[in-house]
Amino acid sequence: MDRELAPEIQSQARRRTAVRIALPVLVLAVLVIWLPGWIRPSLSRARIRTAKVTAGPVEAVIMASGTVTPEVERVLSSPLDARVLRLLQRPGAQLKRGDAVVELDVSESELALDKVVKDLKIKENQQAQSRLALEKSLVDLDGRIEMKALQLQSSEAQLAGDQQLFKDGLFSRESLRRTELTVKQAQIELAQLREERKNAERSTSVQLEGLSLERGSLDKEAAQARRLLDLSTTKSDRDGVLTWVVSQEGALVRRGEVIAPP
C-alpha cells in the first residue's frame, strides 16, 4: 500500500520547484531593468535636428578662377556669299543635332539652281532630238540601201542574161560593157550607203556622248547647288551650347566665314 513521503523529501521537492520558477522570473526581471540602458542611443535628443524632405533640383555655386574650355568645339561656316535673314538661336542656347541656327538669303543660289535645271532640261531635249534624228536618218538610209540592193540584184540578173546573149553572138561587147558598168556602179553606191549609215551611227553616238557628258556636268552642278541650299539654313551637327553667333540680321557673310561656333 502507498505510504506518505517523508517531510524532508517533500520539503526538497518544494524547494526545487520554487527554484525552477523563481530563476526564470529573476532573469526576466534583470533583463527588463538593464536592457533599456544597454540599447540607449549615444546621442541626446537635443543634438538631433530633423526637417521635412522636399524633392527638386539641387543648385550649388562653386567659386573658382580660370578659363572654361569646351571639351569639343565646332564652327559653322557660311556655304556661300549671302546676307543673314534671321537669327534662329541666341548665344547660350542649348542645341540639339539638326537645330537650325541662322537663316541666310539664298535667292541668288535659287536662281543659279533654276538656271542649271533649265540647262539640264535643254540638254535632255537635245539628246532626245539627236536620237530621233538618228532614227529618222537610219530609217531613210535603210530604205535607200534596200532599194539599191534591189537595183543591184536586177542589174546582176540583166548582166547574167547579157553575158549569155554575148556568148551566143546576139549581144554586142559595147552593150555588155555598159551592163557591167551599171552593176559596178550599183555595187559602189550600195557600199557608200552602207558606209554612210555607219558614219551616221558613229556621228550621232559621239554627239550623244558629248551631250551625256555635258548633262553629267550639269547634274553635278545641280547637286552642288541643292547641297548649298540645304546648308543655307545652318544646322548644328551635334548636341551642344551655342557660344557665339553673327551680331545682327542683314549682315553680309562671305563664303567660308564663321557664322556660329556651337
Poorly predicted ranges: none
CATH architecture classification name of the largest domain: Orthogonal Bundle
How far do the termini sit from each other?
Answer: 115 Å
Q: Helical element count?
A: 3
Task: Report the β-strand fraction as a percent range.
Answer: 5-15%
Question: How is the main sheet built?
Answer: 4 strands, antiparallel
- Radius of gyration from the CA trace? 55 Å
> What is the third-level CATH name, the topology of the largest domain?
Helix Hairpins
User: Total number of β-strand segments?
Assistant: 8
Form type: elongated
The average pLDDT score comes to 76
Measured as a percent range, the helix fraction is 55-70%
Order of helices and strands: HEEEEHHEEEE
Number of domains: 3
The CATH class label of the largest domain is Mainly Alpha
Strands of the largest sheet, in order across it?
5-4-2-7
Structure class? alpha+beta
